[in-house]
From TrEMBL:
Cross-referenced Pfam families: Dus
Keyword rRNA processing: no
Similarity annotation: Belongs to the dus family.
PROSITE patterns: UPF0034
Name of this protein: tRNA-dihydrouridine synthase
Reactions catalysed according to its record: a 5,6-dihydrouridine in tRNA + NAD(+) = a uridine in tRNA + NADH + H(+); a 5,6-dihydrouridine in tRNA + NADP(+) = a uridine in tRNA + NADPH + H(+)
EC number(s) on file: 1.3.1.-
UniProt-listed InterPro entries: Aldolase_TIM, DUS-like_FMN-bd, DUS_fam, DusB-like, tRNA-dHydroUridine_Synthase_C, tRNA_hU_synthase_CS
Residues that coordinate or bind FMN: 72, 141, 171, 228-229
Keyword terms: Flavoprotein, FMN, NADP, Nucleotide-binding, Oxidoreductase, RNA-binding, tRNA processing, tRNA-binding
Length: 345
């Protein structure tokens, strides 16, 4: 059992990463149904939440069935972050997570996201302000440090634990690495093995198969893992990892019927959450990812990308079922995209 404040999670929990424009309630539900133990919202601007509470309020919506859910905030001003934490408190997620990992220039320039890795005192003050202003357990997600010459995560972990965070997730890259190279989990393991550290430490970065999850679990000894890119279009990875950890066996790849089912489930939730127009648009990027690997499936692309009537879309999904009846999907490696590839530093 892993404990975050008063939240109890199973041993070695599998966490859905906060992902902007991806980790919305419909996707979180799909991940939860497929084995995620704890899910996070995309990052939410503390300024935005304070100034435009009505628009940002939608980002705080949580379906009961996806819980436990963490709401993630970012901001570079103590008072404003603390105020935003109070607003979040009212909506009753299970926990509040602070983003100290976003490498994007605009966020870093506000002294938020990974920007504070250059100013640990500020990071500590921001965290303490949040902890004091909410009753929720506060967690932090961050990176190894600012750049190769300033990997300060060991100091960061101790100091954030001292001001009351209840868990820490570490993406095994520096801010300046963005997504380049391989995530380095050895420093994450050092944090975990520090005898001063007693909060759960979750590893993050590059997990894309059950075998890698087991290997990293054994090699780095973390309390659980957070997964981002690999589950975009493949939420079944959560259950595959859980099954592999428990039995040492790989589950067969999800069937066509399971894939179509996930498309329908997410469409249904998306319509409910975003309404009839935005709900349809929001799904357009998802269908082909879920159906990736089906030979010839692109011929359905135009219909899935242009139809606006949910029943017509469901009919196309049913046609896919008929067309591929009896087809066995092979397991395929999950590629990790180099997100932020062209992002200016
Ligand atoms: C599309 C996308 C959006 C992201 N948005 C956020 C975010 O809002 N907050 C955050 O802390 N990290 C964000 N991240 C980073 C992920 O949470 C995660 O740390 C990173 O992708 C490394 O994990 P992975 O290798 O499993 O993808 C985002 C990543 C992606 C791919």
């Amino acid at each position: 059992m892993v404990q975050i404040g008063n939240i109890q999670l199973p041993d070695f929990p599998l966490l859905l990463a906060p992902m902007e424009d991806v980790s919305d309630p419909p996707f979180r539900v799909v991940c939860k149904r497929n084995g995620a133990d704890l899910v996070f919202t995309e990052f939410i601007s503390s300024e935005g939440l304070i100034r435009d509470a009505i628009r940002c309020r939608r980002k705080l919506d949580i379906y009961d069935e996806e819980r436990p859910t963490g709401i993630q905030l970012f901001g570079g001003d103590e008072e404003r972050l603390a105020l935003a934490a109070k607003i979040v408190d009212v909506t009753q997620p299970e926990l509040l997570d602070i983003n100290f990992g976003c490498p994007v220039k605009g966020i870093v320039a506000q002294g938020a996201g990974a920007g504070v890795l250059r100013d640990v005192d500020l990071m500590v003050r921001l965290t303490e302000a949040c902890v004091k202003s909410t009753n929720l357990p506060v967690t932090v997600k961050t990176r190894l440090g600012w750049d190769d010459d300033s990997k300060n995560i060991e100091e960061v972990a101790e100091r954030l634990q001292d001001v009351g965070i209840k868990a820490l997730t570490i993406h095994g890259r520096t801010r300046c690495q963005l997504y380049k190279g391989e995530a380095d989990w050895s420093l994450i393991a050092k944090v975990k093995n520090n005898p001063r550290i007693h909060i759960p430490i979750f590893g993050n970065g590059d997990i894309n198969s059950p075998q890698k999850a087991l290997e990293y679990k054994n090699r780095y000894g973390v309390d659980g893992i957070m997964i981002g890119r690999a589950v975009i279009g493949y939420p079944w990875l959560f259950r595959e990892i859980r099954h592999y950890l428990q039995t040492g066996e790989l589950l067969p790849a999800p069937t066509v019927s399971e894939r179509v089912d996930v498309c329908k489930q997410q469409l249904h939730k998306s319509l409910q959450y975003k309404g009839p127009v935005a709900g349809i648009y929001a799904m357009r990027g998802h269908y082909l990812r879920y159906l990736k690997g089906l030979p010839g499936v692109k011929e359905f692309r135009t219909s899935l990308m242009t139809l606006t009537d949910p029943e017509a879309i469901a009919a196309v999904l049913d046609d896919i079922l008929v067309r591929y009846e009896g087809y066995t999907m092979e397991r395929a490696p999950i590629e990790l995209v180099n997100y932020h590839e062209n992002c200016p530093l």
